[in-house]
Amino acid sequence: MELKMLEANFLSLPKEFGFRTSYSTSLVGLHSSPKPSSSKVICSKGTNSGSINKVGTSNLLFQSKINGMNEAISRTLDYFDDEYGGVIVNPDKLPSNPNVFASMLQSSLSRWTIKGKKGIWLKLPSEYSELVPIAVKEGFQYHHAERGYVMLTYWIPEGPSMLPANASHQVGVGGFVINDKNEVLVVQEKYCAPPFVGFWKIPTGFIQEAEEIYTGTVREVKEETGIDTEFVEVIAFRHAQNMAFEKSDLFFIGMLKPLSTEIKVDDHEILAAKWMPLVEFVKQPWIQEDSMLKKVTDIFIARMGKKYCGLFAHHLVSKFDDRSSTLYYNVVNTQDVNCNGT
Question: Looking at the keywords, is Hydrolase present (predicted)?
Answer without folding.
Answer: yes
